[in-house]
Amino acid sequence: MTRAAPRSKISLSRSGDAAGFSTEWVVLAVLALLVLLGNAAFWQQALAGRSWADWQTWRFALSVGVMLTAAQAVPVLLLANRWTTKALLVLLVVCSTVSSHMMSRYGVVMDPSMLRNAMRTDVREATELVNLGLLGSVAMGAVVAALLWRLPLRQRPWRRALWVRGATIVGLLVLTVAALLLVFQDFGSMMRNQKELRYKITPASVIWSSIKATVDDLRVANAQREPSQPAQRLAKAEGRKPQLLVMVVGETVRAMNFSLGGYARVTNPELARIQDLIYFPKTEACGTSTEVSLPCMFSAQGREDYDEDLIRRSESVLHLLDRAGLRVVWLDNQSGCKGVCQGLETRDVSNGTDPVLCPDGRCYDMALVEGLKAEIQRSGAAAPAKDTVVVLHQLGNHGPAYYKRYPENFRRFMPECTRNELRECSREEIVNAYDNAILYTDHLLASTIALLKEKQSQFDVGLIYVSDHGESLGENGVFLHGLPRAIAPKEQLAVPMLWWLGSDPKAGWGVDAACLRQRAEQAASHDNLFHSMLGLMAVQTPPYKPERDLLSSCRAR
User: Fold this and answer.
1) How far is 440 from 253, CA to CA, in rounded Å?
2) What is the pLDDT of residues 427-450, one digit of tens each?
3) Cis before 384 (ω within 30)
């Protein structure tokens, strides 16, 4: 009897060691499942043009599948233990199902810029991406996650667990290298020529991009700000009226749908009637997302000298104008200024209560014009009246719910897509809704110019409009925006830009309108904005480069 007890304990211990599923096998099974079913966008592009009748296709697909499974399993196994395994696997499943849906439905890629956009999207924008397809993906992921959570995992003595885990990781590394060598030339060439593919591998791309975006944000947040540059205004002529410049930042408007630039459908009927308007038909955006373009377009570096960290640590042109003595105000109907207006006067007009301008708790862009009226009144009431720059940040054509960007009386191109699942709409319906939103921007700009015309007796007035980036509307299966700039199509980079400098630009701003009209026929970009605004407002500062100032050769002498 006294000897039976120890044997019973040993037996129970071994039984406990053998109970449940091996953590290593569970991790491999989950990663294999995600590689097979959660990477539709990757496989579609990687296998395009290959015939399944060719055994080389099978060898390629099998080798790449094994390589991706093994390579992604290694870091998971390095982090997995009895407390973290299930949480890690649930996180990977959820990330994979959601990102796979977004990539398959909209053609986006999960690079750090896209993940930074996702992390900074407000609740209202995020809810517009919710549809049955996304909910179905989330539900499927939730079911798999729930099953994983209930799965019993085997527990081993720590020495044996360490040996098994180490041997498994070594074996996976060998398997990864072996699989890669089988298709090295083919796979290497594909990844070099199609760099976006690396961001279509889930869950690795989502995790890596999220970590990199977070680390970059923390590094910039903790980095020392660049020193402020001196900024001084040139003396104004005696008796000159105060200046009022309105800068309208468009959202997600592409140049090819602007009829001022030659688009066959009339999407700019009101602007077309303004004869002293100057349109720049060859303008290129700095980036393909608000998160990139907005800081870039107001920076001294721009795309030509692009350094994201430096741009985010440096003052925007608005800060220079402010320190030069102008009143600078940012009116926002979007999700913030991405640091461009930090420390300046800002007003959020997106949460107004006007039942006409702000139905369902979300304001149309004409709320910006009402806000502008109040800011003009404030500047005009000062003694003396203040030189003022007001920035209007539009909601514009922010997708995918284009139909929510304009009121009923702007539903002119029909039928329109009234769903946020764009693939459920025909291309005609998508374009109709998108063009209706441009019609509303046309009305906003024309209304703003009409308001400024009313103030010409009090101010020298002007308006600049440029969109932050363009949009894909299904071309080559791509929707929305945010592709890495190196592979972005022209639909996401070509943007409309226009200038209006009052009825007499020479008298009000010292600019030869005919000269500027000629300059508008040449290429322009977001890089011109920083220097052109400084030149227009006669602010001297070391970062100013006259060769990037659109007006430098057109100033009246």
Assistant:
1) 12
2) 999 999 999 999 999 999 999 999
3) yes
Write down the residue that tokens 């890089």 correspond to.
527
DSSP classification of residue 248: E
Kindly list the strands in the beta sheet with 278-284, ordered across the sheet, starting from the edge strand earlier in the chain.
345-348, 327-332, 388-393, 243-250, 460-467, 494-500, 278-284, 524-525
**Residue 13: is it exposed, middle or buried by C-beta count within 10 angstroms (0-12/13-18/19+)?**
exposed
| Rounded Cα gap, residues 182 and 272, in angstroms | 61
Confidence of residue 304 (pLDDT cuts 50, 70, 90): confident
Q: Are the C-beta atoms of residues 390 and 247 closer than 8 Å to each other?
A: yes
Side chain identity at residue 149, one-letter code? W
Separation in Å, CA 244 to CA 184, 275, 283, 351, 556: 61, 20, 24, 26, 19
The 10s digit of each residue's pLDDT in 5-18 is 444 443 333 334 45
Integer-rounded Cα Rg, in Å, for the chain is 29
3-state SS class at 206:
helix
Query: In 183-241, where does DSSP find H-type helix?
Result: 184-193, 204-222
Query: What confidence tens digit (pLDDT) does each residue in 33-73 have?
Result: 999 988 988 998 899 889 999 999 999 999 999 999 999 99
The answer to whether 487 touches 472, Cβ cutoff 8 Å, is: no
- Contact at 8 Å (CB) between 527 and 548? yes
Residues 508, 289 contacting (CB under 8 angstroms): no
Q: Which two tokens stand for residue 272?
A: 């077309």
End-to-end CA distance of the chain: 113
Higher pLDDT, 486 or 43: 43
Which residues are CB-neighbours of 132 under 8 A, at least 6 positions away?
421
User: What's the one-letter identity of residue 199?
Assistant: Y
Confidence of residue 25 (pLDDT cuts 50, 70, 90): very high
8 A C-beta contact, residue 341 and residue 554: no
CB 318 within 8 A of CB 340: yes
What is 250-548's CATH number, 3.50.70.10, 3.30.565.10, 3.30.1780.10, 3.40.720.10? 3.40.720.10
Domain chopping of the chain, boundaries? 8-220, 250-548
Q: Are 365 and 394 in contact (CB under 8 A)?
A: yes
Name, in order, each residue with C-beta under 8 angstroms of 92's C-beta and a sequence gap of 6 or more. 30, 31, 34, 76, 203, 207
Distance CA 291, CA 468 (A): 9
Reference 268, options 134, 440, 118; nearest CA is 440
Reported confidence tier of residue 198, pLDDT bands at 50, 70, 90: confident
The amino acid occupying position 314 is S
Contact 124, 168 (CB under 8 A): no
Q: Cβ-count burial of 298 within 10 angstroms (0-12 exposed, 13-18 middle, 19+ buried)? A: buried
